[in-house]
Amino acid sequence: MKLRMLGCGTSTGVPRVGDVPGGDWGLCDPNEPKNRRTRVSIVVESNDGRRILIDTSPDLRAQLLANGIEKLDAVFWTHDHADHVHGIDDLRPMRYGRGGPLLGYAADETVRRLRQRFSYVFAGEHGYPTIVELDNLSRLRMCVGFGVSFCQMPHGPAQSTAYRFEADGASIGYATDFSAVTAEMVALFDRCDILVIDCLRREPHPTHAHLGMALELAEAARVRRAVMTHLDKSMDYAELSREVPPYVEVGYDGLELSA
SMART domains of this UniProt entry (predicted)? Predict the structure, then answer.
């Protein structure tokens, strides 16, 4: 089972657009390629090549091209914030050559909001076919050969869905955009082979995990390997890599890991 990290940046990416020529890199070294971060999204892949995409970041087209991904089997969304969904139209080429739409899943409220904002994706329009057949997660246990389990996480005043995918005797978890560690999250990720974790910055934040909280979840769930994501411009790759424990890796765009 394989993890591909398509993007690991915060909502504005790194560098951030601003008055600084070349963008605002903050404390990140612009000469380190692993500090150039697009918005968050991952792909999990089984040994037989089936792929699940989690979130459709605004940078999705470039991410799929950069990672040589020409086909997907299903899409899952964590929540409906712009940096996690606004690349949804880039799923259209993934529909070409298929006998039917991609499978898509999210929690009830996210399903409702996605249908409201992107109705053509889920119902077709003006002769264009449906791109994604969207359903809620309530009874889902398997998807295209992957075992799927999930729970809701606090994300400030909102919620985000945490996922655990299992195939080929391995497990990969995804916990982005959370602001507290709950018992349900710890149970979901217990002894995960790889867990990708929200880690916005070092200081506490009202809607995201900071470094201490990310490490708290990884330790409490006794994961084999943790990967930090949703990193802002204060999180220099080399500096952060020196701070974290040996079983923790700082994520970067294009990272591939096998579970």
Answer: Lactamase_B (SM00849)
Distances from the Cα of 173 to the Cα of 34, 41, 119, 237, 254, angstroms: 22, 13, 29, 22, 18
- The residue written with tokens 């020529």 in the block is 21
User: Looking at residue 167, what is its pLDDT?
Assistant: 96
User: In this predicted model, what pLDDT tens digit does every residue of 152-178 receive, in sequence order?
Assistant: 999 999 999 999 999 999 999 999 999
Q: What angle do CA 140, 146, 148 make, to 5 degrees?
A: 40
Contacts of 134 (CB under 8 A, 6+ apart): 104, 105, 106, 111, 114, 115, 121, 122
Rg of the chain (C-alpha set): 17
The structure tokens 């993007």 sit at 7
The CA dihedral of 111, 113, 115, 117, to the nearest 10 degrees, is -150
Q: What is the pLDDT of residue 37?
A: 98
Residues 189-199: what's their mean pLDDT? 98
Distance CA 50, CA 73 (A): 6
Q: How are beta strands 226-229 and 248-250 bridged, if at all? A: parallel
Cα angle 139, 141, 143 (rounded to 5 degrees) comes to 115
**Which pTM value belongs to this model?**
0.96
- State how far the Cα of 28 lies from the Cα of 30, in Å rounded to an integer: 6
Q: Where are the beta strands (DSSP E) in the chain?
A: 2-7, 41-45, 51-54, 74-76, 102-106, 132-136, 142-143, 146-155, 158-167, 170-175, 194-198, 226-229, 248-250, 256-258
